Amino acid sequence: MVKKKILIFIDWYKPGFKAGGPIRSISNLVSYLSESAHVYIVTRNTDYLESIPYSNINTNCWNQLDKSSVFYLSNNNTSYSTIKKIIVETKPNVVYCNSLYSPYFTLIPLFIAKKLKINSVLSVRGMLSRGSLAVKANKKKVFLSIIKLLNLFKNCTFQATSLEEKKDIERHFGTKRKIIVANNLPEKSSTPYTEKPKQENHLKLISIARIAPEKNTLYALSVLKNCKKNIEFDIYGPIYKDEYWMECQNIINQMPNNIVVNYMGVLHHEKVNETLQHYHAFFLPSTGENFGHSIIEAMKNSCVVILSDKTPWRELEKIGVGFDIPLDKQDVFSKKIDYLATLSAVDFNIYTKKTYDYIINKTDVSETLLQYKQLFQL
After folding, report:
1. Less crowded by CB within 10 Å, the N or C end of the chain?
2. What SS3 class is residue 311?
3. CA distances from 373 to 67, 109, 182, 265, 295 (A)
4. pTM
C-alpha cells in the first residue's frame, strides 16, 4: 500500500526547542506515524526569539531528521511563492498547520491548499482558550473577525486536543465545522520511578515554560511571596518580553528570606528529564494549557504538580498527585505549597509514587493513534 504524505507547517521545529510544546507535539507525532505515512515538515531556520540560523542544518532545502524530511526556510525565502512551490512539488494528501495566527505557516498554506483542493487540518494549539485570548485581546478579536469574513477555514478540518478545545472552536467558528478530537501524543520514552530525598519544611519547585503572561510567571511569584516555609523556585524558559521579566524581577527582589528564586535560563529538551529528577514539585499556574508536555514530563519524573484549573489535568488532589486550583484562590496555592513543604521524605514520596503510576497509566496512546489516523485519513 502506498503511504500517504502529510505536509506539516510549523513556525519552529527541532533542533530548536524554545517554542516548547508545539515542537514536542510534532516530534512525537513523527515518531508514532512515520510507519504509516511520509511526513514532511516546513519550518524556519531559526529558533523561537532567535535571529541566528541553526548551524547544523542546510537552509532552503530538504534535510532528513529522525523519520521525516524537514525544509528550513530562511527569512528572505519565507514567501508565498516558495510555500506554493513546496506544496506543489510535494503533492501532499493533507496540509497540517499548527498555529492560528501565523501568516506564513498557517494562513498562506491553508489558502494554497484550498485553491489546489488539498485536504487541510488546523490545530489551534490552545489559542482559542479564554486565557489565551485575553492576552492582546483586541488584536486577536480583529484577526478572528477578518478570518471569519474571508472564510479561509471553510473546508479545513479542525483538530481539537480535548473536548474543551472543541467547544472553544465551536464558539468561534460554529458547530457545523468538521472537528476531530485527537489529543497530543506523549514521548515514547519514560524514566524509572525513583524516590526523592527531602527535608521537612523545605520544598524545591521548578517551572519549565516561557516567561510570559499566559504562563503566569508573575502570578507564580506573587503566590510564593506569601509562603511561610523554605521554598526554592527555579525558573527555566525563554523571556518573551523584557518588560514582563522586569516586573517579575521586582517581585523577586521583594521576596522574604525563606523564599529563594533563581532564573536558570533556557533548558534544552534533552536535559529536561535529568533536571526534573532534582525537584519535588512542578509549579505552573498558567492561564490555559491545551495539553502541557512539560506537565507530563514532570509527572514522569515523579514531580508533584501544582497547576491552575485551566489545564486538562483536573481533580489532581482527589487522585493524590497534586493540585489544580482556581486562579482567584491565590492564597490556596500558597497553602498547598507550604503543605507539601512540611512533609517528611516518607510522606512526600507517597505523593511521588502515586504521581508516577498515574501518568504511566494515563499515557496509553492506542486510542489517540486511532484519532490521528481518522484526522489524516490514514
Report:
1. N
2. coil
3. 18, 21, 9, 38, 25
4. 0.76
> pLDDT tens across 106-121, in order?
999 999 999 999 999 9
3-class secondary-structure state, position 41: strand
Cα–Cα distance for residue pair 57/71, rounded to 1 Å:
9
The whole-angstrom separation of Cα 315 and Cα 308 is 11
How many other β-carbons are positioned within 10 Å of the β-carbon of residue 261? 20
Query: pLDDT band for position 1 (50/70/90)?
Result: low
C-alpha dist (Å) from residue 179 to 133, 174, 176: 20, 10, 9
The answer to whether 371 touches 182, Cβ cutoff 8 Å, is yes
Kindly report, as residue ranges, where domains of CATH 3.40.50.2000 are found in the chain: 4-185+365-375, 202-362
Residue 66 near residue 31, CB atoms below 8 Å: yes
Q: Looking at this protein, which amino acid is placed at residue 104?
A: Y
Report the b/e string of 308-337 with b at 16+ CB within 10 A. bbbbbbeebeeeebbbbbeeeebeebbbbb
Looking at every residue in the chain, the average pLDDT score rounds to 92
Q: Which three cell numbers stand for residue 342?
A: 512540611
CATH fold of 202-362 reads Rossmann fold (3.40.50)
284-335 confidence digits (pLDDT tens): 999 888 777 899 999 999 999 999 998 889 999 999 999 999 999 999 999 9
The CATH topology of domain 4-185+365-375 is Rossmann fold (3.40.50)
The answer to whether residues 15 and 286 touch, using CB atoms and an 8 Å cutoff, is: no
